[in-house]
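TASK: fixed-backbone design
INPUT:
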């Protein structure tokens, strides 16, 4: 719409909910797109809504190219950070978890499985599972750090996670690991919980790295 001239610099976009309806997309997908456009300098996000900044196709393409180059390294580093933080959080959670934590994790794990079996977008329930895992460590600072990381992951990694969870073999492994994490916490086996979480996130890291290498090829 911007490149065709339908939207001009200074025009205000529809609210997030109406954009989702207009494009038959989830609000999460719209939120990602707006964040990417803002990062590329194509729109400006204000309290009143998103404002178009420019519509020149060459400028937009160039801005996205620069943004994607930066994201390629950022997403790998974010996954590495998550691998370290969540592994340690799992160890603490095995020692400190409460029954309510296990129930919450089980609920989110079920939501992930239901979305995957329905071939629906499982990224939000998967995010909720990992947030609940870190929360089970009952360390407020750790939860705050993870919240920052997860916010960045939503912008940089959401599309990759969506593709990964739609891969049947990969999704089955993830579901098995979710169950294993909950069982390790239930048994209060810190070493087992840490090992499963490390393997779980390392698998995502390897998948992402392989995808980036294929793009380079």
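OUTPUT:
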């Amino acid at each position: 719409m911007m490149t065709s001239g339908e939207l001009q610099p200074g025009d205000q976009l529809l609210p997030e909910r109406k954009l989702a309806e207009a494009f038959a997309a989830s609000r999460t997908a719209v939120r990602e797109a707006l964040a990417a456009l803002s990062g590329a300098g194509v729109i400006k996000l204000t309290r009143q809504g998103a404002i178009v900044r420019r519509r020149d196709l060459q400028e937009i393409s160039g801005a996205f190219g620069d943004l994607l180059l930066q994201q390629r390294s950022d997403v790998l580093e974010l996954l590495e950070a998550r691998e370290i933080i969540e592994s340690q959080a799992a160890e603490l959670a095995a020692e400190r978890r409460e029954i309510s934590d296990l129930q919450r994790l089980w609920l989110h794990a079920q939501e992930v499985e239901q979305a995957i079996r329905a071939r629906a977008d499982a990224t939000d329930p998967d995010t909720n599972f990992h947030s609940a895992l870190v929360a089970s460590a009952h360390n407020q600072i750790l939860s705050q750090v993870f919240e920052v990381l997860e916010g960045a992951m939503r912008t940089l990694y959401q599309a990759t996670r969506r593709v990964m969870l739609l891969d049947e073999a990969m999704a089955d492994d993830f579901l098995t690991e979710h169950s294993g994490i909950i069982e390790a916490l239930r048994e209060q086996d810190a070493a087992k919980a840490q090992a499963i979480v490390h393997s779980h996130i390392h698998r995502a890291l390897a998948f992402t790295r392989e995808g980036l290498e294929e793009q380079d090829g």
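COMMENT: The beta strands are 43-46, 49-52.
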